Amino acid sequence: MSSSSVIGTDVPFGLLQAIAGMPDEELRQHLVQLQSAEFLYETNLFPELEHTFKHALTHEVAYGTLLGDRRRILHARIVEAIERLFAGRLTEQVEQLAHHAVRGEVWDRAVTYLHEAGAKAFRRSTYPEAIAYLTQGLELAGRLPPGRDQRRQELRMLLALGPALQMARGFGAAEVERTYARARELSAELGEPIELFQALWGLWLHTASRGRYDRARPFAEELLAVAQRLGDRALLLEAHHAMSPSTLWSGDPEATRRHGEKGMALYDQEADGSLAFLYGGHDPGVCCRMHSGMALWFLGYPKSALERSRSGLALARDLSHLGSIVNALPFAILVHQLRGDGAVAREFTESIITISAERGFPQWLLFGKVFDAWFQVEQRGGEAAIAQLRGAIAEYRATGNELYVPGFFSLLATALLKRGAADEGLGVVADAQAMVEATGMQLWDSEYHRLKGELLLARDPAAGQDAEIEFRQAIEIARGQSTKSWELRAAVSLGRLWQRQGKRQEAARLLAEVHGWFTEGFDTVDLMEAKSLLDRLSAASA
Fold first, then answer.
1. CA 228: distance to chain centroid?
2. Phi-psi region of 129 (alpha: psi -120 to 50; beta: other; left: phi over 0)
3. How far, in Å, CA of 198 to CA of 488, rounded?
4. CA distance 500 to 503
5. What is the pLDDT confidence band of residue 104, given thresholds at 50, 70 and 90?
6. Angle (CA) 511 516 517, round 5°
């Protein structure tokens, strides 16, 4: 019974044969005796005979009677037996192989099977389990004989652990940076260019998620240069994947559109299905679509933005990859919110909250909570709802993630403007502009100036001159960034101010020029609002 306890609570006859060291007939008689004593009972007859310990305590006691060396030898024999009995389908047994290799102190096989078990758990999107296997494997890699092979095993484990940590702890988590920093050191030392690229990419994503686009964009440019030098298609795809957010959040959506579309052109759904397990836990084809979709809204193509966003989310769902789905949903929420499609944005928010809570995606759960709080503000307003929104933003930032915070500040400032809390709103805008200055996240810069102008007027209707300066600055920044959607909003704000000041013709000319540029999206809130104001200005000037 002691030998069988090493296998586990469930004891396949084939494995017991391999380690028992006795003739089959004697082994069968021994099992019959154990069944008669009610220590074991048969649980399977097909495809092979299997017994199970009747009580967990019985198993523990039996296992405890074995001396340490005997246990270790038996565990090592079980590894060999599983490899022999299940040759050709070891993936089904990899967790058992890892367990017994660790207990048998077969360190080289333990590291190999822990890596495979971690990768298997990652593919199932069970990230805490993947982290547990890979962390143990990383620790045991240190027990291998020193040398190049040992360092390669450590590097292999680190590069598998990084994406699991990104998904379970968030892109900006401190342990993500430590993991990829060590991987970068090892890959440079070993002269492994592909692994060095993976480590650099992990550090890029960490830097980007912390909101440091002043550093993230040069990182992404380095990745692109490395990929071009190596001439590797998959690396080029991942480099364009990195360049897409780096250019978007730093205020260059035209470059984002180009990089996103280059990534889409390079992407092969069948060939690139494994890249999500190496880079950020999400699919590059999905991410290139979502980033370029957001870029299209800023560039002034609301309908195209919606179509691109839908195609990215459809691809994520077609892949049936949970990490890619949950990574795509924030973009879908933002595109619909920016278009003024609040009801659809809310549906997606409910989805991201449900998935993240059930499957353990903390950064996306907190993202969903911010938008849920914003919907509460939109529905009922009031000081309590504003406080909920502030709290949700603070909770998101407490994890170290700054990605999306520029948009959150815009939501909060807009909510305070609607409530008439101009001084609070100006404080939020000041914080947002300080973030722009510190981090290089310039995409919302035009909108901050516009909101500042509106808040100045809300505080003091006679502050027209100061507000006009802000509106003009918003238009200038938008034109420099080619963000036509921001330019339209700023032109509407300035047009309203001029309308109140009796400058109707100037307002009509300004608005007609900007509105006339657009070729699509006329059913969106911003364009309908601009058209309504333009009609009123034109009627008054007639």
1. 26
2. alpha
3. 40
4. 8
5. confident
6. 110
Question: For residue 24, is pLDDT > 70?
Answer: no
Q: Which amino acid is at 471?
A: F
The closest of 433, 420, 442, 97 to 256, measured between CA atoms, is: 442
pLDDT for 97 equals 84
- What is the secondary structure of 104-165 as a DSSP string? TT-HHHHHHHHHHHHHHHHHTT-HHHHHHHHHHHHHHHTTSPSSHHHHHHHHHHHHHHHHHH
Write the pLDDT tens digit of every residue in 314-331. 999 999 999 999 999 999
Nearest alpha carbon to residue 376 among 420, 346, 356, 334: 346
| Alpha carbons 176 and 301: distance in angstroms, whole number | 36
pLDDT > 70: what percent of the chain?
A: 86
Gap between the Cα atoms of 497 and 465, Å rounded = 10
* Percent of the residues in the chain that have a pLDDT greater than 90, as a whole number: 76
Kindly state the average pLDDT of the residues 94-112.
Answer: 88
Asked whether residue 432 carries a pLDDT value surpassing 80, the answer given is yes
Phi, psi of 11 (to 5 degrees): -125, 95
- CA 441/CA 60 separation, integer angstroms: 57
Average pLDDT, the chain: 88
Residue 51 has pLDDT above 80, yes or no: no
Q: How far is CA 67 from the centre of its chain?
A: 47
Helix (H) or strand (E) holding 274: none
Output phi, psi for 389, to 5 deg: -65, -45
Give yes or no for a contact between 190 and 213, defined as CB atoms under 8 angstroms apart. Answer: no
Each domain of the chain, given as residue ranges in start order, spans: 2-156
CB 177 within 8 A of CB 165: no
pLDDT digits (tens, 9 = 90+) for 53-81: 344 443 343 444 444 566 677 777 777 77
Q: Is the distance from CB of 487 to CB of 478 less than 8 angstroms?
A: yes
Using one digit for the tens of pLDDT, what is the confidence trace for 139-159?
A: 999 999 999 999 999 999 999
**Upper half-sphere CA count for residue 70 (Cβ side, 13 Å):** 13
Contact 82, 11 (CB under 8 A): no
User: Residue 404 — φ and ψ, nearest 5°?
Assistant: 80, -10
The torsion angle over the Cα atoms of residues 415, 418, 424 and 429, rounded to 10 degrees, is 60
Tokens of 121: 């758990």
Asked if residues 328 and 313 have their Cβ atoms less than 8 Å apart, the reply is yes
User: What does the DSSP 8-state code read for residue 92?
Assistant: G
Domain 2-156, CATH number (from 1.10.10, 1.20.140, 2.30.30, 1.20.1050): 1.10.10
Distance CA 407, CA 410 (A): 5
DSSP 49: -
Structure-token pair, residue 227? 């990929």
Q: Looking at this protein, which amino acid is placed at residue 489?
A: R
Mean pLDDT of 374-398: 93
- Assign 28 a pLDDT band (cuts: 50, 70, 90): low
Q: Determine the 3-state secondary structure of 510 from DSSP.
A: helix
How many alpha carbons lie under 13 Å from residue 37 in its C-beta half-sphere? Answer: 11
